């Protein structure tokens, strides 16, 4: 850090840090010299990015592929209404530099993959997870293990969150805790299950805290510990984690020695864009609208949660939430024709597979879900 120094303006800016014995001038120079890879600029990425920028972390490389959407603004506080439609990484970069012009922010508009991850992380000291999908989590974990870097993990769903620091040099890795991802569809994303607006702020701020502690070398990082937070009763629980000697990536005889195809491994895409390859069971809103006017109209099945039906619904639809569908198949007539729908088509595709596996052959799913119906057939319908 011989060449890392603070300007007069920076000394004034960080003065509240400089007065803390555990930080001081030397610690602030460490922050300025540090380089962090942050994957995601959404719910978790927003507070992480803002607080790392404010703290004076000198180089932040942010990776994301999405654009700012109005549905993001309930929780993704780094973005704003004036930047709707902008690339998320550019929107985030603009806000971070407006907050602190004395740092470097690399905006990488791309999805993190096994092909580009090593290069993107090459000059970074710490890997930080602001994503919301399993392929990215396993990729970041394996990259951290293979490169000997710490991985700061965070996860959120509805009212609950998790935080940990995985560093295989000093403790367990993410695979020690979760050797295999859950079956596809078992754990819904925030886009399909919802998230309490302030929850990412709580979890993301804790992640930023762990990053800064690692850079400064102060306190006790959450290595070997998993923090569980429940916003409904404001409770924090800490679970101790142990290294798994049989872990496939950090164990005594690892079988994962290079980055793999994580989307195939997890069975789900890392890109949450609601698109899927065309199938013979796809049906457009226009086609469904025509079918519903026929004498032998198909039965509509709404696989969303009841709370979502308060926002929008289709007349006459049978309500069978995805999690309950399997239990009610015996009540349905396999000879009838069915059209499944959800919000955007993600859960209805999962429901389709359940019904096909249950012996139903006359079944389709509504492409784009009820939101697509509103955009195409009924513009008065509320979108969400």
Summary tags:
Oxidized Rhodanese, domain 1, alpha/beta, 384 residues, single chain, Rossmann fold, 15 helices
What does this protein look like?
With 384 residues, this protein is α/β, with parallel strands linked by helices. The protein folds into two domains: 233 residues, NAD(P)-binding Rossmann-like Domain (Rossmann fold); 95 residues, 3-Layer(aba) Sandwich (Oxidized Rhodanese, domain 1), CATH 3.40.250.10. The protein is built from 15 helices and 13 strands. The strands form two sheets. It has an eight-stranded mixed sheet, with helices on both faces. Strands 9-13-12-10-11 form a five-stranded parallel sheet.
SSE layout and pairing:
Elements: H1 8-13, H2 15-18, H3 24-33, E1 35-39, H4 45-55, E2 59-64, H5 88-99, E3 104-109, H6 117-121, E4 126-129, H7 134-147, E5 151-157, E6 160-166, H8 174-177, H9 190-193, H10 199-216, E7 225-230, E8 235-240, H11 262-266, E9 282-283, H12 285-291, E10 299-302, E11 318-319, H13 322-328, E12 338-341, H14 346-357, E13 363-366, H15 369-376
Parallel strand pairs: 1-2, 1-4, 2-3, 4-5, 9-13, 10-11, 10-12, 12-13
Antiparallel strand pairs: 5-6, 6-7, 7-8
Helix pairs in contact: 4-5, 4-10
């Amino acid at each position: 850090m011989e060449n890392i120094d603070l300007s007069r303006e920076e000394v004034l800016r960080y003065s509240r840090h400089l007065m803390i014995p555990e930080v001081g001038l030397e610690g602030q120079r460490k922050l300025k010299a540090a380089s962090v890879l942050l994957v995601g600029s959404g719910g978790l990425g927003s507070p992480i990015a803002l607080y790392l920028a404010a703290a004076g972390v000198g180089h932040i490389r942010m990776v994301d592929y999405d654009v700012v959407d109005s549905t993001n603004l309930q929780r993704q506080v780094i973005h704003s209404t004036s930047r709707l439609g902008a690339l998320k990484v550019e929107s985030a970069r603009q806000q971070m530099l407006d907050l602190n012009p004395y740092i470097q922010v690399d905006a990488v508009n791309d999805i993190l993959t096994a092909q580009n991850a090593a290069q993107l992380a090459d000059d970074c000291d710490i890997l930080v997870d602001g994503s919301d999908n399993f392929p990215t989590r396993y990729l970041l974990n394996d990259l951290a293990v293979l490169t000997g870097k710490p991985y700061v993990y965070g996860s959120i769903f509805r009212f609950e969150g998790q935080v940990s620091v995985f560093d295989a040099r000093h403790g367990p890795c993410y695979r020690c805790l979760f050797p295999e991802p859950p079956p596809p569809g078992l754990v819904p994303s925030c886009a399909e299950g919802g998230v309490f607006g302030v929850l990412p702020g709580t979890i993301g701020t804790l992640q930023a805290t762990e990053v800064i502690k690692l850079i400064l070398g102060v306190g006790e990082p959450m290595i070997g510990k998993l923090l569980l937070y429940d916003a409904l009763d404001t409770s924090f629980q800490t679970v101790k984690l142990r290294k798994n000697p049989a872990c496939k990536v950090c164990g005594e005889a690892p079988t994962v020695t290079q980055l793999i195809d994580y989307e195939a491994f997890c069975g789900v895409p890392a890109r949450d864009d609601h698109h899927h390859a065309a199938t013979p069971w796809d049906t457009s809103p226009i086609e469904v609208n025509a079918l519903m006017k026929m004498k032998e109209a198909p039965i509509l099945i709404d696989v969303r949660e009841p709370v979502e039906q308060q926002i929008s619904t289709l007349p006459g639809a049978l309500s069978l939430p995805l999690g309950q569908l399997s239990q009610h198949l015996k009540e349905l007539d396999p000879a009838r024709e069915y059209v499944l729908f959800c919000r955007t088509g993600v859960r209805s595709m999962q429901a389709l597979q359940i019904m096909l596996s249950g012996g139903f052959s006359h079944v389709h799913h509504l492409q784009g879900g009820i939101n697509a119906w509103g955009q195409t057939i009924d513009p008065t319908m509320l979108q969400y």
